[in-house]
UniProtKB/TrEMBL annotation:
Record's keyword terms, sorted: Cytochrome c-type biogenesis, Membrane, Oxidoreductase, Redox-active center, Transmembrane, Transmembrane helix
Protein name, as recorded: Thiol:disulfide interchange protein DsbD
GO MF terms held by the record: protein-disulfide reductase [NAD(P)H] activity
Keyword Nucleotide-binding set for record: no
Subcellular localization: Membrane
Residue intervals of the Cytochrome C biogenesis protein transmembrane domain: 46-262
Domain of life: Bacteria
GO CC field: membrane
InterPro entries in the record: Cyt_c_assmbl_TM_dom, DsbD_gamma, Thioredoxin-like_sf, Thioredoxin_CS
Topological relation to the membrane, as annotated: Multi-pass membrane protein
Natural source organism: Ewingella americana
EC number(s) stated in the UniProt entry for this protein: 1.8.1.8
Transmembrane spans: 44-69, 89-109, 129-153, 173-199, 205-230, 242-261, 267-285, 297-318
Length: 445
């Protein structure tokens, strides 16, 4: 650009710059690339609202929440006098509990924003006390679903709750709030994008999207409230109810063990294994007393068989020629200086911000980043792979994400001669998107 040119939009135009320092000068020939679009402008608000609705709905299918809905239906079946009105009112109260708890989360995010605290979906999993609390809650829930213990209230309190409609509604409201609490360890498709958008948006949008999340999660409950005959058509309690409770208990057991594995970021592996062994031993002993040796042995064998088949299928899928067993990429610590240095050296930079508690991050890793062709592209001589770990609180990682308009993981970005400003990838990676991004960053046509 000559000195007589007027300053204006330089996008796509060549620019020459001279850097001088203590008698040393270097001329750089650059091409101005358009700025990376902001997260909020890349997706329409109505699309994010639909994502929030879908993400909240899918939470009901997660192992953490499904047992709550199953127990809710079980409580309806165990009532001798079942009528449409009572079913409708109970499920409406539970739906109100779900929606109210999501609005409470929105209030918490608002308070954190005004107090300049770290914002992000899932940051509660950086706190070992929260993880420990959820492990205890899900473990007790597992034992209850497996029939190892029952919560028996005093007869006077039971009579009072049965005769006072308001007290019963409070209990149903609490069930909905508890379902939301159990949903926090779970992730679902569309959820991360919607929450990331909400946490970076103005407060009215934040509250609106959290409301949509609550409505989405309460949809199955609202559906039964609208058509209570769906619950009334279920057969009377019998052996099938026992089998259903055991199945739901095993799902909750998986969630509890997953939560326990997150403690590896805070305590030793030996401590985690001891806690897991004590927990599983207590379940086996309780099952022996509850169901006898034969049924317990059958349940343990079936569980081990299913777990073995799942691991075998996973191993076969990872060794089918498309995914190596180990990550061959030499990941380097993520810093702004490392990005700037690599870009100055005309190298391609692949940024990956992840966390152990991020389910979507794991999906990206095993479905995309460990593929043989993607590994080959990331281990090329002109590619620098940088990884940031947000499993624990990290101000540098938090500042890095906020600078780029993101408040959640996974976060992936690609820099290079063809993308000097960087290109942010979708939270749910695909093989084609990663390979195409690396090609664009090299400046290949």
């Amino acid at each position: 650009m000559s000195g007589g040119d007027k300053a204006g939009d330089l996008t796509g135009k060549p620019v020459s710059a001279v850097l001088a320092d203590r008698g040393i000068a270097q001329q750089l020939d650059l091409k101005m690339e358009p700025l990376a679009p902001a997260t909020q402008s890349s997706i329409a608000l109505w699309q994010v609202a639909l994502m929030a609705l879908a993400g909240g709905f899918i939470l009901n299918l997660m192992p953490c929440v499904l047992p709550v809905l199953g127990m809710k239906l079980g409580s309806i079946l165990q009532v001798e006098q079942r009528d449409r009105k009572s079913v409708r009112v109970q499920f409406l109260a539970s739906s109100a509990g779900i929606i109210s708890s999501f609005l409470a989360l929105a209030l918490l995010m608002t308070v954190l924003r005004y107090s300049n605290q770290t914002l992000g979906w899932g940051i509660q999993f950086q706190n070992p006390w929260f993880i420990g609390f959820m492990v205890i809650v899900t473990a007790l829930f597992t034992a209850n679903l497996l029939g190892l213990f029952e919560i028996n209230l005093p007869s006077a309190m039971t009579t009072r709750l049965a005769t006072q409609k308001r007290g019963g509604l409070k209990g149903n409201f609490a069930e909905g709030a508890f379902a939301t609490l159990l949903a926090t360890p779970c992730s679902a498709p569309f959820l991360g994008t919607a929450v990331a958008f909400a946490l970076a948006a103005p407060l009215p949008v934040l509250w609106g999207l959290f409301l949509m999340l609550g409505i989405g999660m309460s949809l199955p409950w609202l559906m039964i409230a609208t058509w209570p005959g769906l619950a009334l058509r279920l057969p009377r309690p019998g052996r099938w109810m026992l089998r259903l409770r055991v199945a739901l208990g095993l799902l909750m057991l998986a969630a509890s063990l997953w939560l326990l594995s997150l403690m590896l970021n805070h305590i030793s592996l030996q401590s985690v294994l001891i806690v897991a062994a004590v927990f599983l031993l207590a379940l086996v002993v309780g099952s022996l007393r509850r169901y006898g040796k034969r049924n317990t042995a059958i349940a343990v064998c079936v569980s081990l068989l299913v777990a073995g088949l799942v691991m075998l299928a996973a191993a076969l899928s990872y060794t089918n020629g498309a995914k190596p067993l180990q990550d061959a990429v030499k990941w380097q610590p993520l810093t702004e200086q490392a990005i700037a240095q690599a870009v100055a050296d005309n190298k391609v930079v692949f940024v990956d911000v992840t966390a152990d508690w991020c389910v979507t991050c794991k999906a990206n890793k095993f479905n995309v980043l460990l593929r043989e062709d993607v590994q080959k592209a990331l281990t090329a001589d002109n590619v620098v792979a940088l990884r940031g770990d947000w499993s624990r609180p990290s101000k540098p990682i938090n500042d890095f994400l906020q600078k780029r308009g993101s408040v959640a993981v996974p976060f992936n970005q690609i820099y290079g001669p063809g993308l000097p400003s960087g290109e942010i990838l979708s939270p749910l990676l695909t093989r084609d998107a990663v390979l195409q991004g690396l090609q664009d960053a090299r400046g290949d046509k």
